[in-house]
Amino acid sequence: xxxxxxxxxxxxxxxxxxxxxxxxxxxxxxxxxxxxxxxxxxxxxxxxxxxxxxxxxxxxxxxxxxxxxxxxxxxxxxxxxxxxxxxxxxxxxxxxxxxxxxxxxxxxxxxxxxxxxxxxxxxxxxxxxxxxxxxxxxxxxxxxxxxxxxxxxxxxxxxxxxxxxxxxxxxxxxxxxxxxxxxxxxxxxxxxxxxxxxxxxxxxxxxxxxxxxxxxxxxxxxxxxxxxxxxxxxxxxxxxxxxxxxxxxxxxxxxxxxxxxxxxxxxxxxxxxxxxxxxxxxxxxxxxxxxxxxxxxxxxxxxxxxxxxxxxxxxxxxxxxxxxxx
Length: 326
Prior knowledge:
Blueprint: H1 2-35, H2 43-64, E1 71-73, H3 83-87, E2 113-114, H4 133-150, H5 159-165, H6 176-185, E3 189-190, E4 213-215, E5 223-226, H7 231-239, E6 244-249, E7 257-262, E8 272-283, E9 286-292, E10 304-308, E11 320-323
Parallel strand pairs: 7-10
Antiparallel strand pairs: 1-7, 2-8, 3-4, 5-11, 6-8, 8-9, 9-10
C-alpha cells in the first residue's frame, strides 16, 4: 500500500511538472508572437513555426542555464525559421588573400576601441532575405571611412548599386574587396536615396548623370589586406579610425546570440557570413572584437555581437580587409 502511494505521488508530481513546463512554453510562445509578429499564417504553417520555436526555446534555455557560459542566447526572428530560410541570410564567399602581404603594422594600438556610438557609425542595416551581407559589409566600411575623412554625421550609401552592378546576382553572395575594386573603377558609390535597397538582385541602374557620388575608392590601391591572424594590425587599423570587413563560418548558436562574448567554435561552412569589426576590448578577462551585423537592430545586442578575440574564432581573423577611401 505504501509503495503504491509513493508511485502515485511520483506520477502526480511528474504530471504537475509537465503541466508547468507546458504552461511556460505557451507563455513563451505568446510573448514571442507579440514581439515578433508572424503575419498571416495558415493553421499548418503556424504549427510548423511553433514546432521550430519549441526546439529553439529548448536550446536557448539549456545554454543559458550553463553557469560557465560567456554569452547568452535569446529569441529573435530566426527562432521560427527553417534551415532554408536562414540560409538566405548568408552570402559571403571565402576570400583568397594575396600571398605577398607585408608584415606587422607599426601603427599605434589603443587599449580599447568602440565605434558603436560614434557619430560616423550608420544605424545597423537589415539585409533581409538576400545574401548581400558582403555588400553591406563593404558599404559600411565606405560610409564610416568617408565620414571620418570629411567629418560630420553618418552617411547612407547604396548597397543595391554594389549588388546590381559589381557582379551577377549579388543576392547569391560576393566579396567585399571585389565591391571596392568595382567602385574604384566606376566613379564611386552613390547614396541610398539615389539607388534604394530592394533586397533582391536586379539590373544595374547606376549612372553618374543623375546620381550623386557619395564616396570614391583609391583606383591605384583600393583594398588594404591584413595578414592572416595579425590581430595587432587589425587593432592598429581600428585605432586609426577605420573599420574592417571580416568573414566567418557561423555556428548554429550564433543565430540566437543575445549578449556577452560569443565563443562557440562549432563553425559551419555553409553559414558563411560577412560582417564588420568596429572595435575591441576586454570583458571579464576575455578579449573580444565588437562586430556589426546586417540583420537589423532586433538581432543580438542591438545589431552587434562581441566575438572572442585572438583565437581566430570561425576564421574571423583570417580574411580581414578594409578599403582605401578618398
